[in-house]
Fold these 2 entries.
Entry 1:
Amino acid sequence: MVSVLLDFKGTKIREYCQSKLDSGIDPFEIFAELQLGLEEIGKGYEDPGFRRYFNSDLIVSGRNMKRAIDMLKPLIPTRNDGKGLVVIGTVAGDVHDIGKTIFAVTLESDGFLIIDTGVDVPCERFIAAVRENTPDILAMSSLLTTTLPEMNAVIQGLTNAGLRDNVRVIVGGHAVTEGFARSIGADAYGRDSIEGLRKCRDFMREKA
Amino acid sequence: MPGLHAGKGMKIFFLFSGPFGEQIINTISLGGLGQQVSGAYELRPEQILVPGGDVPGPDSLFENPERYIPADFPETGADLLIVLGVHGHLSDLIPCIARRLNVRSVLYPIDDRDTIPEARKTIADELTEMGVHVEFPEPFCSLSRSSDPLIGEFLKFFGRPVFGVSTDIRSGRINRVEVLRDTPCGSASCIAGKLAGADTNDLNSLSRFCYDEQHNDEAENYCLAEMDPRYPLMQEAGDLLKDALFEGCSLTSTKGTLLSFLERSGETGVEDLAVQVVGLPSGKGTSGCVTRRAFDLYLRELEEEYRIVITAQNTVKLA
């Protein structure tokens, strides 16, 4: 799995996904398997005792995950069964989209409706998206610690615009911690896409 | 004897790890030196785990490196050993591997802090004692000259990028870009293929295109160096690429800006000069560079070329 994600040419990932699809494996299951591989590389990169994966491994595996998402996403049924509407995006100053996209696909496959605002999303655009779409949940991602204040700015902006009480806010991404999420007044922190999904389900249960 | 193996008969062996190494081997093999590759071996830390799953400590590797060379390491020879992205912990094996391969030169580029050899000086001393020339370019694409004939031969193909650009005199648009020397990662060739029609009068766009494309992971080849702002190797590589293109287009590169400023202002403090040249606010380094690392490199080169003098008081003046 890891070697598939680390293939710089990107041919192995396509072959891997295709062969799994050909053997009748559910596209979301393939997606989830790849996520485990990505997590393993991430752990190897962050291991304080012995870093086994480097910057280049993160870049290449991220690129391959994007290739897999491009291939698998159209095949993952979007249930759209009215579980909830989520506006999602990566905050301004940060162009990383893998974590955000993985979370979006995970939510979508669980029946949430997604409005993906993309990456490097300015505060005003998040607020406008909430005003225009009245989502149940706003999900923000940030990989870089330098862009963390943007999350705070968006929450403050929602409050100032009188929109905060109508939307639950979940934050996640490499730079975010549970403590940070609490300190800026977010409703939840998602350590990974599965925990994020669980919390979004909780939001919708509370709302029902 | 170093030198005997230079030229077309030179054999290259790669010791690598991960996609960083694979991309460079691919570029070098397809970019003119394929016939000269005698072999490649991927050395990952997992291969030399000691019982219990731990990686052997630096002491044990240093004291008995032979013991840790994997059993399937190929029995082959080479003139030039290129070490790519191998974990810094494993660097004590390099002299031993160099001996096995009977190489004359070692190129040990550093494009990530985690690959910095833990005992760099010891390794360099040991290789030198063996009569093996070693260089540690940081990043790989900063390599532009060498006293070693084997590395010199390598530099005819790969290293700091060099472009030959033909432009339409009337419109200033690029007609054709020839890559005279590619970056080892191959990003220079990738960018060159996309430059036809670019306007050399629009410095901001040309510069931004260069920086963006250099690490564009949608491209076939792109820079995989470390990008941490505290160790901005990728950004430095971007500076080198942008300046190479500007030089190819006969536009003012960072070195030209440096010299012009000194001509206008006379003797200037290094730090004051850096303020003028590094991270210029008008676009991403249109006439300067983004990183202090590139600035320092250019300054060293200009001094070596006897074009400037750096004084003991840390000021710079034209020679």
Entry 2:
Amino acid sequence: MEIEVLEGVFDANEIIARENRALLDEVGAFMVNLMASPGAGKTSFIMKTLEGLAGEMKAAVIEGDIAGKVDSERIAATGVPAIQINTGGSCHLEARQINTALDRLDLEGVRLVIVENVGNLVCPAEFKLGEDLKVMILSVAEGDDKPLKYPLMFSESDVLIVNKIDLIPHTDFDMEVLEETVRKMNPAVEIFKVSCRTGDGLDSWINWLKERLT
Amino acid sequence: MHEMSVCESMLEVVLKHAQRNRADKVTAINMVLGEFSTVMPESVQFYFDIISKDTVAEGASLNFRRTKLIARCEECGDEFEVVEYDFTCPGCKGEKTEIISGREFQVESIEIN
């Protein structure tokens, strides 16, 4: 006998993502889901963003890693509350883990929550967390051909940060090729070209984010 | 890579419906899998065989119906197949499009005894 089911495998995750969304709305917090490969500069980018917003609004960070608490310690050293989630081998964060982390955070007065997803260009794109904004980083050394190899993440992201632009002269990275490929996949994407090392380009990203937050 | 956690959610859906219909055995699971999904059918079967042991779904065969990546242009309303991830509308060159199929990962039906 055949039984109709018509239930999405990600439905359960999406229900919790909506709960997270409702909880964040209640306290008036905006959540960014930051995704990138390992080593693209996610933590440095978060630290630069927090620096740029310092004194203007209260922020908190949720760090997702397979193991260790290196990243949350780096963030906590700046005085911004940070929660570490260890996924224990899992390649992405799920809404349930964010739900637990939000419970542990003191969200009183917090306007911005940044979630640093597990370093991976594939899996995090499939799992909604209840975020307002999906931001991804591509670093120059990874190459301008990545959008065609990891199309889902590039097409799902609201913002693409191209990091480490100070390295461009030392590579074959072609910014025009990258932009052309990404725009076809995702015409509405906002692109910011930055270097967390030199500070180049970070102002325009921070100003753009501030506009969304105020 | 996330097939293991995906399989756990999939098994939950299958077992819930199997129990609701008082199934002794689930013989087949019919899935819809979009072309744009990152899930790999072979890995899903591999993990499913492991985690479904000692449940009514043990030994069930998984069938995958693939759907193409189709988008709808929000400007002219045309629906078109997205080729090589180019989401520009081939008709009016509109850039605001919405995916209407190709992202599914759904349990469509189960076959039970």
